[in-house]
Amino acid sequence: MTAPGGLIEEIPVQDLLPRVIEKKIANWRLCQICAVTLQGLYELSYSFADGYEFHTLRLVIGSDEEVPSISQVYDCAFLYENEMRELFGVHIQHIAPDMQDKLYRIDTKTPFAEKRRG
To answer: Are 86 and 113 spatial neighbours (Cβ–Cβ below 8 Å)?
Structure first.
């Protein structure tokens, strides 16, 4: 069992899908996916639970990096992934279903993305 709050593990993008598949095979639940901007980067946290044990897989990526969708492994991920793309501008590839930036009725494109000055 991990400490209260669980384990947070930073992984490279190419490890995301294989690690998520491992969690699914081991019957871990997808609890949440969170995106934040961090000094020109994105921090994406994918949290899983098994009983009272929590494990978060974290990606820290550049604003132009592509991230594979996990919606083919966890169906419910499509909502989180559409939200990350629409609100933050994260490049999530092959979301199913893809809401085509119509999940929210918003006037501003990617309102939570860090705006570059210049």
So the answer is: no
Angle at 61 between CA 35 and CA 51, to 5 degrees: 50
8 Å CB contact between 101 and 85? yes
Angle at 13 between CA 22 and CA 88, to 5 degrees: 115
Check which CATH number belongs to the domain holding 25 and give it. Answer: 3.30.460.80
DSSP SS3 for 49: strand
Domain that holds residue 23: 7-93
Report d(CA 29, CA 100) in Å as an integer.
Answer: 26
Helix (H, G, I), strand (E, B), or coil: what is residue 42? strand
In a domain, 36, yes or no: yes
Q: What is the pTM of this model?
A: 0.88
Q: For 25-59, how does the pLDDT look when each residue is reduced to its tens digit (9 = 90+)?
A: 999 999 999 999 988 899 999 999 999 999 999 99
How far apart are the C-alpha atoms of 20 and 22, rounded to whole Å?
Answer: 5
Question: How many structural domains compose the chain?
Answer: 1
Q: Which structure tokens are listed for 49? A: 């639970």
